[in-house]
Amino acid sequence: MVFGSNFLHLFNSFFHSPFMISYQTFSLANGLQVIVHEDPSTTLAVMDVIYDVGSRDEDPERTGFAHLFEHLMFGGSANIPNYDAPLQQVGGENNAFTTPDLTNYYISVPYQNIETAFWLESDRMMQLAFNPQSLEVQRKVVIEEFKQRYLNQPYGDVWLKFRPLIYEKHPYRWPTIGAEIKHIEEAQMDDVKAFFNRYYVPSNAILVVAGKVSLDQVKTLAEKWFGPIPGGEKPLRKLPVEPVQTVDRRMEIVAQVPSNRIYKAYPVVGRYADGYHAVDMLADLMGRNESSFLYEKLVQNARVFDSISASQTGSTDPGLLIISGQVADGQSIDAAEKALDDAIAQFVSHEFLEEDLQRVKNQGEASLVFGEVEVLNRAMNLAMAANAGHVNYVNEEADKIGQVTMEEVNFWAKKIFVEGKSNTLVYKKS
Predict the structure, then answer these.
(1) Is the same domain home to 179 and 294?
(2) Taking 90 as the threshold, does the pLDDT of residue 225 lie above it?
(3) Would residue 244 count as lying in a domain?
């Protein structure tokens, strides 16, 4: 990949000096939190709206609603029957995504047309159309997505099977798409309206406006378009606490898959907890790329696996460190699993050099830099941090990475990889 001189200059200036995302905040009387990030260097203006609801907030008997609702939000609102048409007329783009922790909607427009984004987002926050036809259309879209992504491709159902093994009580037990198709098939309009009225209110949302905008401009537009919306009450989140895991868990699946695979998961801390970045560095040392410990041991040297990786989920509540590997053809899956367990034990006792840690720190810092080049990414980062109650986290993360010590990494390795903490899912070729 070749980058232009301007981009390289930008990268170097960011990398060699503290890169801070400037922002200003205010709140409307209805409880809507607003964040403004001014960047006069761009010709764009972006809007990011986060609702503090994800799949973890769903009824265990009615899962998949947060994701279904993401789709329904594009089915028209009270005054705008076609959401996309007016946006396309002003050269804008939009999309959305749902996670276990939140639902995010974003728009990018030429800066002169930012009021169009205010109009569109405020109208559907005020009142969706609640069109029965839209519900049926989006229900079919989500069901088809469920089938194509999770049922009709090799290893697609890994998280449908693995999550309930890992989590006993916490709603991370099911994926964002839902635990099973019937929950979406049985969704009724009354359920949809109740979900909207509970979660899609200003007091449960974060609004970020970024790009070629000004604070005064955003204040005026926010008050004009979002101010009249009733604030509602922010829902109280009372999630079940996951019990401390004390017994190793294992599952085998025999399926028509191209090759044998092994997945391992270990409980770790949440995204904003102490130790998160040390665990992140640990995962990078273990299996980020071809220079990582597991790759060198099990792919390059032993040739037991064709590929292997390690990463953590980064969820708000305590998440997982995931190791996944594709077993090489001709290798026994039992032997491969033993080789992986042995390599993990070796990793725990291995004495890494400071230069090893610095290498993954540099990779982490570079990822931050690249992730903040685009103004939309900066807006999203601000919105997600604010939604978690840590808006300035976006400007602290590089320091947190830099402060990780080898002692911390070793501490977490010894804490994570112990008897009674592993969850293993094995895919065997039928």
Answers:
(1) no
(2) yes
(3) no
68 and 146 in a common domain: yes
Q: What's the total number of domains in the chain?
A: 2
User: Does 14 fall in a domain?
Assistant: no
- How confident is residue 13, by pLDDT bands cut at 50, 70 and 90? very low
Question: What is the amino acid identity at position 131?
Answer: N
> pLDDT per residue over 241-277, tens digit each?
999 999 999 999 999 999 999 999 999 999 999 999 9
Residue pLDDT, tens place only, 84-101: 899 999 999 999 999 999
Model pTM score:
0.91
Same domain, 202 and 281: no
Band the pLDDT of 211: cuts 50, 70, 90.
very high
Domain encompassing residue 381: 249-429
